Amino acid sequence: METARIGVTGLAVMGRNLARNLARHGHPVAVHNRTAARTKALVEEFGGEGTFLPAETAEQFVASLERPRRLVIMVKAGAPTDAVIDEFAPLLEPGDMIVDGGNAHFADTRRREAALRERGIHFVGTGISGGEEGALHGPSIMPGGSAESYEALGPLLEDIAAKVDGTPCCTHVGPDGAGHFVKMVHNGIEYSDMQLIAESYDLLRHAAGLAPAEIAEVFRTWNTGRLESYLIEITAEVLAHTDAATGKPFVDVVLDQAEQKGTGRWTVQTALDLGVPVGGIAEAVFARSVSGHADLREASRNLPGPARGTADDAGFADKVEKALYASKIVAYAQGFHEIQAGSAEYGWDIDSGAMATIWRGGCIIRARFLDRIRAAYEADPSTPTLLTDDHFAEALGDAQDAWRDVVATAARIGVPAPGFATALAYYDSLRADRLPAALTQGQRDFFGAHTYRRVDRDGSFHTLWGGDRTEVTS
Ligand code: NBP
Fold first, then answer.
1. pLDDT < 70 positions in the chain
2. Which of 113, 158, 190, 338 is catalytic?
3. Annotated catalytic residue 190
4. Does this model's pTM top 0.85?
């Protein structure tokens, strides 16, 4: 009987395209789906692309896999993933591998990995980015799990991943939930990147007075420079598009309420748990949330605003480009800070430069810029922040006047730019000699005897605020 090198269960858009990608690369692939019609449709439609071994039952599916078995789950994240694991794990043997390519929360992946490890089964939580097109033509792949499992899986995954300059956009991220953690932060950065681009559009429209088609041209120009990226490229496409039904710019007929699926929210929740400031990502999540509160917005529509002005200089678009580049540096610096904090907390030993490398192709945030991040980590692998890398520090210094002007203009004319503003505040906070946190500590000691440390000697102190205000050591 012919055996498959790998199997995919869950054949909706992602699983189907991933299975086709494997088959197109010459890997015989077993395919299975809860509803057998999807399996049949895949083989009928795309059977000519390679060797597919369709299975109707879990037993047939597992029996068709060569050993050690490699089984990829591509089902809806959450309870369906547990249901599929419960169905397949009893049919597997020690040394077999279950790859979860869904968008699982890393804590779930840690739980599942620990449970399956007890049974000798490798559980490989794997972030896959690039949507359905990426899954078919080459995604960015972020596998976690044991180093041993990567030996058996890595060559296959690297084969079907996107390639940039011949380097696959796939590497072993680290143990247990590391892959899904990095995918989560990748998505958080994606939220931030998209929000900053949206703010740039809004300012070009309302401060510089440009029409969507003109803004598309601005983005096209930006895409030939340091901002070159998939997101800037598709932004130009969307802005240049005209609605066939009305003849209006497409962007003007789309309801302005953005949706989210949860990975951005998880990035922020996790950052709060780890104590990592990711204001840029948080503002991006909140901006979508604000947009979706139609009732709140309707009730607030008549609140007074400034006499609507415009930007007062012709070079405003160039200033926005600088503000966007600087804020983007901040977004990535915050995301990588979270990856480093997660890595330290869970003992993953994640190589940040390698993450920048595997995001250069296949995924939504693919960009020329990631080469810079890779170079920054090559120059100093243990840098606490990307902001101080020579290239980025110089770019921030060069951008800062324009960045401040853009944030000030947005505030003056009443165009919301929370992403730009929080990025600049983060930059200025990190630069500051002294922060008002000293006053915060004084207040905390006053009302709660929370104590404070001093700049001039070690120890914890408390002032007797309700008494004679002498200072005591606590
Ligand atoms: P969906 O997330 O829409 O899930 C549909 C699949 O899950 C179908 O195969 C369905 O089987 C199966 N399924 C469900 Br629902 N409940 C099940 C259960 N209890 N037992 C067995 N199978 C069950 O598919 P997708 O959009 O292809 O995404 C797959 C995974 O990839 C998700 O975790 C998603 O978050 C992740 N992801 C998606 C993208 C993207 O761009 N779409 C990108 C990156 C990652 P059925 O046919 O029998 O209903």
1. 312
2. 190
3. yes
4. yes
